[in-house]
Amino acid sequence: MNNKDIEIDFDHRQAAHCENGVISNLLRFHNINLSEAMVFGIGSGLFFAYMPFMKLNNLPVISFRPWPGMIFNRINGRLGISIQRYKFKDPRKSMEALDKNLEKGIPTGCLVGIYHLTYFPKAYRFHFNAHNIVVIGRENAEYLISDPIMENIEKLSYNDLMRVRFAKGTYPPKGRMYFITEVPSSYDLKKAIVLGIRQTSQDMLRIPIPLFGVKGIRYLARRMRKWPKTLGPKKASLYLGQVVRMLEEIGTGGAGFRFIYAAFLQEAAKELNHPWLNDRSKEMTEDGDRWREFAIIAGRIFKDRAGLNESYSAAADVLMDIAGREEHLFQKLRKITLD
Amino acid sequence: MKKHEVPQDNEGLREGKQVDLYYVVDENGNYVTVPSCGWAPKNAALLQAWDMIHEKVEEVRQQVLHGKLSPIAYYMEKNIMDVKLLASYIGLPKWKVRRHLKLSGCTKLDEIILRRYADIFSIPVEALTNFRESAEKK
Q1: Fewer Cβ within 10 Å of end Cβ, chain B: N or C?
Q2: Which residues of chain B are within 8 Å of residue A238 when distances are taken between CB atoms?
């Protein structure tokens, strides 16, 4: 490796969620100014899935976002951006390719695992492999990292970066890296917004499998009511803890996603000149508040490890209410048109 | 959520390093972002997960000290891994890794494999060959 220092002039801004943040920051580098919320909305980042048969750290998978990478794919399709992606078998080759990119002055997105990410607070380091960062340079043999959920630019050594790029486990990153190769001179933002909203409504309402969208929330609520019986108090409390962690953890925040979406709807109202979207934004904010109430009730349950049946029912009731709200909301949003 | 409702429940989990960005509504009903250093229910969920991990690690540590399991089993647990994950890190079949978790399987290991395990756990090889000493030091 050549040790010359490189620093790409990259405007790092913090975001609430890593994938949105990386996309928003990369686009800004190419003179496309879209807020995190806009990226989230156009990329249809809001979702819900409960997949009890899939396990992560021995607990069922609950996801508040689509499959990693989907937001970026949708953004690219809707705005006409071209990106290049690579995947590697050989860790050293992946680092060579990254070095070459940096030498050409290309900020490069990488998919990494969190567990060995040295600059992360220890308490947050689990084996989770779908985190996004942008490498923006090299200084004294350390790589400069724009991690959208950190306030400042962070650093990683060659070995540490290689290690997180080749983390193992569920959804291994395999050295995946990506960068923008071409942006269009003009794009239709309004159309992209409408497509984004329609897709989210579709995903939340109409996937004919009961694990996803509004149906998935109801499914989780029904199962949750029975957890103290079917799992026993200890495991039930762990399952509930898992829901809250998925709901609120760094970079995944499900309740947070509702608020980002509300912020997006507010921006969309202005952009499309659809004042009615402001009302939907308010409803979405209320819905996000309900998710937070759910987290508070859940937190109370697993904090004193009481595991009372009634409390699980109370938590499930909130989820049922949320499902109803979101169903209602997306039924209205589904009808959105350009004019 | 309103701007003044952003929780600031710092329970020392972030080592002063990381703040969350919250999307909240300001006095005029417009969305803005506000940093937060933590929220109690979220902290509780995180601590719950770590309690479980620490409990399990301690259990395995005792078993290692009693000669029932190998130090590799301890460090596997300490790194929140299971056999599947450890096997994919070390690049060996699961049945082999499972054998290394038993004390008898671990003592027969050669230096090269031990070194690979030590690298994965970011520890010196001595921590694996001389567990009692390094475990008591802590």
Answers
A1: C
A2: 48, 52
